[in-house]
Structure formats: C-alpha cells, structure tokens
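User: structure tokens for this one?
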Amino acid sequence: MKICIIGTGAYGLSLSLMFNENNNDIIMWTKFDHELNELSTKRSYEKVLPGVTIPENIKFTCNMKEAVKDADLIVIAVPAAFVDNIASELKNYYQEEQHICLASKGIENDTCLFVNDVLQKYIQTDKVAVISGPSFAIDIAKKVPIGLSLGTTNPKTEAILKNSLQNQYLKLRTTHDIIGIEICGSIKNVIAIAAGMLDGMGLPESTQAMFITESLHDIKALIKALGGDGKTILSFAGFGDLLLTSTSTKSRNFSFGKLIGENQPREVIDEYISNTTIEGLYTLKSIHKLIKDKDVDIPIIDLIYEIVFDGHDCSNLQTFLISKK
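Assistant:
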C-alpha cells in the first residue's frame, strides 16, 4: 500500500516508522529544502527526533503532486495552523478514491474550525479519519506499546488504517465520534499548559490529580455541547492523552506552563515560544473564542486564557480548584 505523509515533523516521522513496520510504500512531503536534504542524506532529523534513524526505503520530496500520486492513504501531520494551506494545495492532486488520515490536532484561530472541517472546505469526502491518543513521537519511534483512538464513519477507511498502521507496537480503537476525538486532541494541550503551571508553582501530584479530574468533566461537557459523544472522554484520545500531556515534561505545552508557574522572566518564556511549537498556545485562542461563540460555560478555559494572555496571577488556579462548583 502506498502511504503519503504530509509533514516531516516529529509526529509524521514517527508515524512513518509504524507504517514502515507493515511494509508499506512510504513517501513524505516537506515544504522545506533543508529538511529534504537532511532527511535524504543523513536519514535523521536530530532537531525533532534525536537519535532516530529513518529507514532507507522511506522517500522524501518537496513536490506534493509526486507525493500524492497513486497514494492509497494520505496522512496530514502538520501543526493545525498550516492545515488550511496544505488542504488548499492538496485539492489540486487529490483523487476521490484516496483516503485521508488527519494526525493534526487543533482549532483554527480565525474560524474556530476543527481540522476535519478545514479539510472539508477544500476536499469534500467521507473517506477520512482522525487519529489521536497518548503518544509522544519519540516513544512511537522507540517502538513501545502505544494506543490511539481512530475516529471515522467510513468502514473502508477504518480497514485501511488498521491494515497499514496497526501492528505489534501500536493499537487502534475505533469510534464514529470524529468531533469528540478532535475536541479531546485539541483541548488537552490547553489543559496541559495549566497543569504545567501547577507544577511550576510547586504543587504536588495530589493537586495535579484533582485538576485533571475536574478537567475531564469540563471536556466531557464541551464534547456534548458541540454534538459529540461524552463517552469519548474515556478513550485513548480523551483521558489517555490528557493524562500523558498533563503530567510529563516531554510535553511542550506542560513545559511552557511550568515556565509561567515558576514566574520565569518574560524573555525566557518568549524565547521558549519562539523556538518551540506549542500547539496549546495556538489552540487556547481558538477554544476561548469558540466557547464564547457557542455560549458554552467552561470557566477553566477563561482562567487559563487570562493567565497566559492577560497576565493574571497563576495562584488564581489554586483558588479556582477549591471554589469550582
């Protein structure tokens, strides 16, 4: 099976290793010549996936037409902010028999559209799936047991993903709740920022556990308010990913929040932002606008927004946890 992966970041590269385990024909697309050169010549990308060697049979290109041609499955694995541009170009080469897997997570700032909705603006298809779950890229690359939620309403798309991606290291659990998976995959990065703040403030695991539990209720309420299935909160994409992202310094979102909680100088925080892709920071703006537009009451989102963008004190989190009804 031919797999085209759009994006050569850490997650896209780690997924390529899993697809390669199943003997698929893999080609990866990058926009940047320097990435193409490094990946093609060194067979590694130390900046994003240190210590990991990319097999020789995985190909790379900057030509999207070449990458997409004859692919059975197209995987989009770029930051949410770039999905619109990718989908806009992809529509020129996409064939209706091709299936698409969205590994990107997040919500557009201006439109508050989830990634699948952004795709559908350009490519109207039901041959689409979203994957999400507790899975740092480096852990996937190390081939340890990983579980992901697979959201799709198309049985053939489901079969293609399971045949091409699921193996002795990676398990997929299927749901029809695409919107629930997308909400979980997006908001967990925002919650992880707040969890990092608590850690930076020196609060212990007991408080972290309290915060994560409270957050589960809020995420479930948001899923239901936006038309998803509340049960999705108990999936790999829900509780699994929230637990991982909100408790580990491997999480860029958690690490960002930790800097704020430690009351690090503004220049230190700004440097981290400029050198790191923090999906939760982008998504925070979107989710804050979305809940206002939809008239959904999620106070924790308001509080995180006020701390990150309006400079409110982190100690408000501690007060909030006790006073929250």
